[in-house]
Design brief:
alpha/beta; Rossmann fold; seven-stranded parallel beta sheet; five-stranded parallel beta sheet; 13 helices; 14 strands; globular; protein-glutamate methylesterase activity; CheB-like
């Protein structure tokens, strides 16, 4: 689920501009490690290092953090119980849930998102595993930086209108997102393909689970007649839970894709965590081809392998959607889809948790539309019903 292991230079900050981060974890080793990482960044600082959720709730008024990294399993008051209390005391607090990769913790992380957490991050089983620790380090710092900066922009006097608390904001993004005006240069648009779409491909990352569940809930007519394939940057176990949530939200079959299975209309196929999902021709059928190769765009699963492989199967009959997420995954594959005669829709900046992936596609000039989340599903239903505008 990492977006990059190369380190982009952080913005230059004064002490007053630094993001204040509260680290809450009952492990002294984890607290110390995360605190060292944050302290090494010029644009952020540790405002407190605390052992329990109760400590965080009792001290938040004094600490006034911008971001909290909140462990799930802690004594006295666990993370999921502390979460709503923290948001009640500080409306604009960005909370990133941290947990080990177990099914129980994955379920709790999804519940945390519905309660107002901004994102989640899986902790490595052992900090002695160099690759896992480096990925955790990079992803955590990037999430703090991007999510914290976004919250500050929205809270600034120039940002209009005033945002509701984070818990309400998640529900709005999931159901009826608010499109706050964002000043930006006009983005180049290209017309939608005149070819009838035969498949829907979706790529997403940070903020993706909430966006995906909102989207699939409203595209039932598309799912019933066409296959839907999704790549969400997410680790194993988490994708298993996400598939179950997508099935409930859409009221259609949804599951982690299985290598070699035939792709059929009426189903949602989700790339399993840790493996790329591609498609291929096998006689008259289209089949799933899972790939355990190296990361692409520093992600695994990545969106570009799915987008690129689909061209050989459906040629120009591809409708692709790029939702909220860090990085630029999906942009290159989107370019190839457009060159083959297909179309790309990107989520707009105002309703994206992070406008990295959709922003890269929009700024590359490959999109036929850049839309608020709540307008994407109606547009897809019209396009798959024959509308070409």
């Amino acid at each position: 689920m990492s977006v990059a292991l190369t380190k982009s230079p952080p913005p230059i900050s004064t002490r007053q501009d630094k993001l204040r981060v509260m680290v809450v974890d009952d492990s002294v080793v984890i607290r110390g490690m995360i605190s060292r990482w944050i302290g090494a960044e010029p644009d952020m600082e540790v405002s407190a290092s605390l052992r329990t959720g109760l400590d965080a709730v009792n001290q938040i008024d004094r600490i006034k953090p911008d971001v909290a990294v909140l462990d799930i399993e802690m004594p006295e008051l666990d993370g999921i119980s502390a979460l709503p209390q923290l948001l009640a005391k500080k409306r604009d607090l960005v909370i990133i849930m941290a947990s080990t990769l177990t099914r129980r913790n994955a379920e709790i992380s999804f519940k945390a998102l519905s309660l107002g957490a901004a994102d989640y991050i899986p902790k490595p089983e052992s900090t002695r595993e160099a690759t896992a620790a480096e990925t955790f380090h990079h992803d955590l710092i990037q999430k703090i930086r991007h999510l914290g900066a976004r919250a500050r922009r929205r809270a600034s006097p120039a940002a209009s209108p005033t945002l509701p608390p984070a818990s309400e904001r998640v529900r709005e993004v999931s159901v009826h997102p608010v499109s706050a005006p964002v000043a930006q240069l006009p983005l180049a648009r290209r017309p939608f393909s005149m070819l009838a779409p035969r498949v829907l491909l979706i790529g997403s990352s940070t903020g993706g689970p909430q966006a995906l569940m909102a989207l699939v809930a409203d595209i039932g007519p598309v799912i019933d007649r066409f296959p839907v394939l999704i790549t969400q940057h997410m680790p194993p176990t988490f994708t298993t839970i996400l598939a179950e949530h997508l099935g409930r939200a859409s009221r259609r079959p949804a599951h982690e894709a299985v290598d070699g299975e035939i792709v059929k209309p009426g189903r949602i196929y989700l790339a399993p965590g840790g493996r790329h999902m591609r498609v291929a021709r096998h006689g008259a059928d289209t089949v799933i081809a899972l790939d355990d190769g190296p990361p692409v765009n520093f992600c695994k699963p990545a969106v570009d392998p799915l987008f690129n492989s689909a061209i050989d199967v459906w040629h120009g009959g591809i409708m692709s959607v790029i939702l909220t997420g860090m990085g630029s995954d999906g942009m290159r594959g989107g370019k190839e889809i457009v060159a083959a005669g297909g179309s790309v829709i990107a989520q707009d900046e105002a309703t994206s948790v992070v406008w990295g992936m959709p922003g890269a596609a929009a700024n590359a000039g490959i999109c036929a539309a850049v839309l608020p989340l709540n307008q994407i599903a109606p547009k897809l239903v019209r396009l798959f019903s024959g509308d070409r505008s």
